[in-house]
Amino acid sequence: MKKIIFLLLLGFSTNLFASDSKLNLPIYSYPLKEGKGKQLVETYCQMCHSVGYILNNAGVDKKTWEHIVHHMIHDFKAPIDEKSAKEILDYLVKNYGTKNK
Fold first, then answer.
1. How far is C-alpha 10 from the geometric centre of its chain's CA atoms?
2. In this predicted structure, what is the pLDDT of residue 78?
3. Which has the closest alpha carbon to 81: 91, 69, 63, 92?
4. pTM for the full predicted model
């Protein structure tokens, strides 16, 4: 009997959350600064996260950017070769490093 009541309540509760209306979320586009390495950042970094992640970290020093890039490659297994990683790092430091707060 308890199972039947539970299943009935579960059925009613799911109908409460069902809706025909659509949820329209805004889409924000944050353009990256122009420069050597921008295309690599757009290609490799944006396959997992938005540019907002980069902008939220803007103003950090080179050592921190090195740590972030290393973390993405080794811990999250981003498929970035060594040459591309260096170019991405140089781009991030130049355009979103401590000099660009």
1. 35
2. 94
3. 69
4. 0.71
